[in-house]
Amino acid sequence: FFFAFHKSSFAEGFESVHFNMKVPSSSLATFLLGCIVSSASAFTPSSSLTSRTPSSLVKTPSFYKRTTTLSSSPTSDAENEIVEPVGFGQPTELPDSLQDAAEIAAQSSATFAKYQGGVGMTRCRVDFDTSVGDETYTTLKSSTEFMQKYVSALCYALIPGAMERRQDEMMRLATAQAQLTAMMQDKEGEVDEEKRQELLDIIAEGGRDPKADNTWKGPVARIYFPDEGSAALARRDWNPKGPPTEALVPPCVEFSSCGGVQMQDITNDKIILFFCPKASEAEFVEQILYKTEAKCGENLALTVFVNPLLVDMGVTGFGMAGRMLRERLIDDLTSIYYLRTLQWGALTRIWPNQFTVWQEDEEEEGGYRMIKSLDRLPSNPEVEDIYDYENGLANDPAAGGGLGFLDALGDFVNGMTKL
Questions:
Q1: Whose CA is closest to 220, among 256, 187, 194?
Q2: Which residue of 17, 160, 206, 249 has the fewest CB atoms within a 10 Å radius of its CB?
Q3: What SS3 class is residue 314?
Q4: pLDDT of amino acid 146
């Protein structure tokens, strides 16, 4: 997708412009414009988001496998078109990389929004956990990189004008690089210093026009962080208002927090995302959600909860308060993307496919084999049971032929011995 292309092929091409002035300008221009065409085709909404990130740029965890994509993808030309997704009842395969996972999650989210009509009250959730139980970092910290790539891909798919603006910047940058190279290689002609400085300014701005007002005035994708400190840190580090070469998310992204006084203008919000909301912010989350849906109406295309933890024994409890919160907010969220790594494999799901359990297997191509596919999210004990049944560590009651009570008793004893 964009960041993979931007930080690899494009960056390498530009580096040759700066430091290898012997490259013929015509060849360089052809190379750069070829990159533009390739990137533009990758950005085309009708194409599948299956571009790959160079391994030198993205660390590929061992649990990533390969991707399954939806044949239906959203189109910016027909914003309210209802698309028909495919994949119902089919298993979900593992992604190739972190970049791949983010792109697939964004495509699935955009397709879901289109499938629902793309008008208000479209809520879903994305769960991404590759910690394998390691609590060294918070969930928010460990999923930040995924969130950046996911939000970027989602914006290019759903925010009108975001993709076109980035393509214009890339074309302007490629043209400026080619013109500057031709100018520097022309030994006979006199260098126009004013033109040269203009080209250098465009390059320094990552393709933006230095003389134009580059403030984003279109629809907004707003991310709500658990607290203002996290939002302020993201505002600085993700740098959506900075040059495209430095920004980690598009300029249409804005940041807010769940707590405190809500002073921001939300009338242009097209997408809202709650990033790792916790049980302590559940009340604020509900207030923000209902207020935004009421104020934005049909302009709000999608609401996404990323790694939500809104029910907690120490805050909401698992009694009446927790049950009511689940009924009001959580139970109706459609699981659009799910990826959780396990000690022995992974559990994943791409909407509208099934939840699928994968086990590491060195003999299989890709290093994993599917052991179970379900139409619902299995609980943690169920996942472990699936692994035990598959590997002969327990008897599967569904397989039949067992001794019923004696098998259950044997499984109970085996489970107790593992404690």
A1: 256
A2: 160
A3: coil
A4: 95
